[in-house]
Automatic annotation (TrEMBL):
Keywords associated with the record: Glycosidase, Hydrolase, Signal
Matching InterPro entries: ConA-like_dom_sf (IPR013320), Fructan_Metab_Enzymes (IPR050551), Glyco_hydro_32 (IPR001362), Glyco_hydro_32_AS (IPR018053), Glyco_hydro_32_C (IPR013189), Glyco_hydro_32_N (IPR013148), Glyco_hydro_beta-prop_sf (IPR023296)
Listed name of the protein: Glycosidase
Claim: Thylakoid is one of the keywords in the record: no
Amino acid sequence: MTTTSAIWFLIFLTVGFHHVRYNAITLEQPYRTAFHFQPPQNWMNDPNGLMYYNGVYHLFYQHNPFGPLFAVQMYWGHSVSHDLINWTPLEHAFAPTQPFDINGCISGSTTILPGNKPVILYTGIDSQNRQVQNVAVPKDPSDPYLREWVRYTGNPVINVPEGIQPDEFRDPTTAWLADDGKWRVTIGGQKDKAGIAILFRSEDFVNWTRHEEPLYEVTGSGMWECLDFFPVHVDGTNGVDTSVTNPAVKHVLKMGVYDYARDYYLIGDYNPVKEKYVSQDELTLDSLRYDYGKYYASKSFYDPVRRRRILMAWVNESDSDADAIAKGWSGLQSFPRSVWLDQNQKQLVQWPIEEIEMLHENEVSLRNENLEDGSLHEILGITPLQVDVQISFKLTNLEEAEILDPSRLDPQLICSEMDASKKGIFGPFGLLAFASHDLTEQTAIFFRVFQHNGRYIVLMCSDQSRSSTRKGLDKTTYGAFVDIDPQRDEISLRALIDHSIVESFGGGGKTCIIARVYPTLATRDEAHLFAFNNGTKSVLITELSAWSVKKARINIDETIGCADA
Ligand code: DQQ
């Protein structure tokens, strides 16, 4: 390059860069979130390597630093936090620069080795497009933020195993230490259409041996990615460190089922001697999911500070690539949730971490208000675009509930056919988020109660069909049953509402649904939040509490337009 062309190239770079910045500053950003994690700009997908180390929480994430759309050559974004609420952006932990990851640094996990030594195991796409597993350690373990990571020169430490396609072997879990003093790690793949959790063991984290049999496999389920494997107490809500195996714990195996982009999980027992996992139930399309809305590639970690297991996941957009380009970003992380085994040992329960309370202000509350057929109760005194709301309903005379058609037991289908506008007997009742004053726009999160096989069954729906006047959005309605007895229990709903996301927890966190929505009328001062009942039977709001949620400091780049508090 001549000197003149080099100067022109520099000018072009500078002008080009400022042009991008200028757009970012002047763009309206009504859909950027206030308390859900997102990077300053561009594309983000899976959370990676969540961990707590020396007083600091770390969140790494799949990032395309060059634009708001997915790219194969992923980087590891890196942010740190003291409270899991406010996050400071750091330099990328990895860029695809080495022969063993030159075509992408994709998902992986952290493990804390004895002596408090963090190590990352991640998938790299190598120069021959093979998915291989690589190790990295902090350059300076005394740096409080672990800004720089050094990749082991002997990478890859695990090559594609025999019989596995080179592009079907990815996303190592956090490793666990077995009684024999050796590490175990499991990595997702598929073999002859069976989803498999391939198991490896190692003494030193560098030399890994494949166990002949997978930890678990399911014929016909297709490729598994982003596995997670962790113990949960059989009794109590405390979390358990990943290496714990004893009769007081059960094990959860979570698999990202690629063909459906869904995170399913199983509960079962792990036998470390036989190196086998035995689940209580079989994996089917109706199996348990962490979340029945837009939610994928989740990852959990054990937080020793509050002795809990925390879960986060990638929440994709529901708008188009063109919208992502206009916004300059794409992708959120779900709000961190504590996760534990339900008392009945049949499912997990999830709940927003209590640190959200540091963002609460303007509490409003209500008790014992009857909602008759067709009533709307506006929740005033909060900021409807940034709110944490909890509401509980009590129902009486349930024997009048509709009978569920036994030929239609698919909850998502029932929710989309019987959307919030279709009157029932008990339900729909719940919340209308992001509602315009005339209700043209509304995101309805609601319940219906049916009779089925001699008992009562509670359906939870998130209905996006009227969430925006805009066309070309994915407005899929989501639904799932909530395992509670409405004769005995109140029916509770909590919703974290944040500009373009509604994260809903039914039945105290037994059923969770995330929806992405992009209102055009229900924005800024024009948005409302209502409790509603559109069933012929009245329902009693026993308790309602709502808080405005202050804006957290999340990866703030002051040059970028952010959602208003
Ligand atoms: N995303 C990563 C992969 C993972 C997939 C690539 C799941 O490692 O399997 O960005 O969303």
